[in-house]
Design brief:
The chain is α/β, with parallel strands linked by helices. The chain has 2 domains: 279 residues, nicotinate phosphoribosyltransferase (Alpha-Beta Barrel), CATH 3.20.140.10; 109 residues, Alpha-Beta Barrel (TIM Barrel). Helices cover 38% and strands 18% of the residues. It has 16 helices and 21 strands. Strand 16 and strand 17 form a beta hairpin. Helix 2 packs antiparallel against helix 6.
Length: 475
C-alpha cells in the first residue's frame, strides 16, 4: 500500500527546509528508533512493521500534486520545493527480523543516510513500527494465555479505520494470532479467514432452530452456530445438537458453536459435556465477547473448555493497562561522523550515542540470557563473552556475561542504498519464528503479572563514551 510523502508531521518538513537553508542537508546522520518501556507492564515486545516501513522508504516520492499543496501553504520557497521534487531515500536501515523478541532501550531500527533522508522519514517509521509492534506484542500475550487453544482476530469493526484494521490483521499474525475475520486481509496477506453468523441471523427467522437449519443447509461443511441469542443451555445448545444430528445423517459434521455472553468458563464446560454426551466430541467451542489475555487466562484457570478464542476490540485497539501506544522514539545518535546524545533533566529520556550493535547472549541450551549494546565501529576491543555489561540507568548495577555464551548481533542491514536487500519471509514463517523465540526467554518472562525483567546492558566503552559526551555538554 502506497504511503504519501505528505504523511508526516509538519515539523519534519520545516526542519528539512532549515537544513537546506543552512547547507546541512547532505551531512551524514544516524538515528535510532527504540521504546523506553515494555507495553502492558510486561518484559518484552514483538518487533513488527518492518516490511511496510521498507516499502515506504523504497517508494518515497513527492508527486506534483503534493508539491503544489506544499507551495499553497506559503511556508516554503521554490528552492526547497525543487529539492523535494528529486528527493529519494538512498540510505541504510539496520533492523531485527519481524517476529523477534525485543526489549526496552535497545535500537530496533537504525536509519543512516544524509540528514535530510534520515530526518524526513521519522514520523512514518514511528507510525508503522510503534503500532504493528504493539499489536504483535498483544497477540503474543493472547496466544501465551490461550495455551493450546487457537486465537482468531475479530477486530476489524473496532479498529482505527480501514488502515488500522489491515495493520492489525498483519501484525497479529506475526505475534501468533494467525487467522482473521477480515476478508481483505485474508486476500492481501494470505491469512485464513474464519467466522460465523451474527445474532441478527437468528432473529431474522421465525425461531432459533429454523435459523440454525438454514445456516447448516447453506454451509454444511463449515457450520459454526452462535448459540446465545436466547438462552445458551436450554435453547441454543440443544438446537445445535439437533442440527448436528441432522448434518451427520446427511454425511456432514457440525464444525462448532460460539459463545458470546455469560460465564464463558462455566458455559464452555457445560457445552463440552452436552456435546460429548450427545456423541459429538469433535464440535469446537468458540468464545468471544470483550476478551483479552487476562480474561482468557482466567477462563483457562477456571477449567474452561474453550477451543478457540475470538478476540476483537481489545486486540484491535491494543487495550489494557500499560497498552494503548508503544511510545517508541526516534533519536539522532550520530551527525557528521561524530556520535551525539540528548542530555535532559529527566534521566529516563537521555539517549545513548553512536551507532550500535545489539548483542544477544545465548547459553549452551539456547536460552536467552541478556542483551548488550556495544559500539558498532569502535576500533577498540569489541564486547565478548566474559565481559561485564552495565545498567545504563544505574552503572553500579552490572552483570558479567558467562564465558560459555554465544554472542550474536540480533540485527542486520536490511536496506542499502534505498533498496531492500532480501525479500521478507512469509507471515507464517514470522509467526513460527516468534513462537520459537518466546520459548527461549528466561523463566518467568511470559507471566502476565510481575514478569521476570530481561536485562539490557551497555558495554564499558559505550558507557564511557556517553559519560564523556555528558561531561562535554555540561562544560
Amino acid at each position: 500500500m502506497h504511503t504519501s510523502a505528505l504523511m508526516t508531521d509538519l515539523y519534519e518538513l520545516t526542519m528539512l527546509a532549515g537544513y537546506l537553508r543552512e547547507g546541512m542537508e547532505e551531512r551524514p546522520a544516524a538515528f535510532d528508533l527504540y521504546f523506553r518501556a515494555a507495553p502492558y507492564h510486561g518484559s518484552y515486545a514483538i518487533f513488527a512493521g518492518l516490511q511496510p516501513a521498507l516499502d515506504y522508504l523504497a517508494g518515497l516520492r513527492f508527486t506534483p500534486a503534493e508539491l503544489d499543496y506544499l507551495k499553497s501553504l506559503g511556508l516554503f520557497d521554490q528552492r526547497f520545493l525543487d529539492f523535494l521534487r528529486g528527493f529519494r531515500f538512498r540510505g541504510r536501515v539496520t533492523a531485527p527480523c519481524e517476529g523477534e523478541v525485543v526489549f526496552p532501550g535497545e535500537p530496533l531500527l537504525t536509519v543512516e543516510g544524509t540528514l535530510a533522508e534520515a530526518q524526513l522519514v521519522e514520523t512514518v517509521l514511528l507510525n508503522l513500527i510503534n503500532f504493528q509492534t504493539l499489536v504483535a506484542t498483544k497477540a503474543a500475550r493472547l496466544t501465551v494465555a490461550a495455551g493450546h487453544a487457537e486465537v482468531i482476530e475479530f477486530g476489524l469493526r473496532r479498529a482505527q479505520g480501514p488502515d488500522g484494521g489491515m495493520s492489525v490483521a498483519r501484525a497479529a499474525c506475526i505475534g501468533g494470532v494467525r487467522s482473521t475475520s477480515n476478508v481483505r486481509a485474508g486476500q492481501l496477506f494470505g491469512l485464513p479467514v474464519k467466522g460465523t453468523h451474527a445474532h441478527s441471523w437468528v432473529m431474522a427467522f421465525p425461531d432459533e432452530l429454523t435459523a440454525f437449519r438454514a445456516y447448516a443447509d447453506a454451509f454444511p461443511d463449515g457450520c459454526v452456530l452462535l448459540v446465545d441469542t436466547f438462552d445458551t443451555l436450554t435453547s441454543g445448545i440443544p438446537h445445535a445438537i439437533t442440527v448436528a444430528r441432522e448434518l451427520r445423517a446427511k454425511g456432514h459434521e457440525l464444525r462448532g458453536i460460539r459463545l458470546d455472553s455469560g460465564d464463558l468458563a462455566y458455559l464452555s464446560c457445560e457445552a463440552r459435556r452436552m456435546f460429548d454426551a450427545a456423541g459429538f466430541p469433535q464440535v469446537k467451542i468458540v468464545a468471544s465477547n470483550e476478551l483479552d489475555e487476562q480474561v482468557i487466562a482466567a477462563i483457562n484457570a477456571d477449567g474452561g473448555r474453550v477451543d478457540i478464542f475470538g478476540v476483537g476490540t481489545r486486540l484491535a485497539t491494543c487495550a489494557g493497562e500499560g497498552g494503548g501506544a508503544l511510545g517508541g522514539v526516534y533519536k539522532l545518535v550520530e551527525i557528521g561522523g561524530r556520535p551525539c546524545l540528548k542530555t535532559t533533566s529527566d534521566p529516563a529520556k537521555a539517549t545513548l550515542p553512536g551507532r550500535k550493535r545489539v548483542l544477544r547472549a545465548v547459553d549452551p541450551d539456547g536460552r536467552l540470557i541478556m542483551d548488550v549494546l556495544d559500539l558498532a565501529d569502535d576500533p577498540g576491543e569489541p564486547f565478548r563473552a566474559g565481559a561485564t555489561a552495565y545498567d545504563p540507568a544505574n552503572p553500579q548495577r552490572c552483570k558479567t556475561v558467562p564465558v560459555d555464551c554465544d554472542l550474536t548481533d540480533c540485527r542486520a542491514v536490511v536496506m542499502e542504498g534505498g533498496k531492500q536487500l532480501e525479500p521478507s519471509p512469509s507471515l507464517e514463517a514470522m509467526a513460527d519464528y516468534c513462537a520459537r523465540q518466546l520459548k527461549r526467554l528466561p523463566e518467568g518472562s511470559l507471566r502476565l503479572v510481575n514478569p521476570h525483567r530481561y536485562k539490557v546492558g551497555v558495554s564499558r566503552r559505550l558507557l564511557a563514551l556517553r559519560d564523556e559526551l555528558i561531561r562535554a555538554a555540561e562544560a
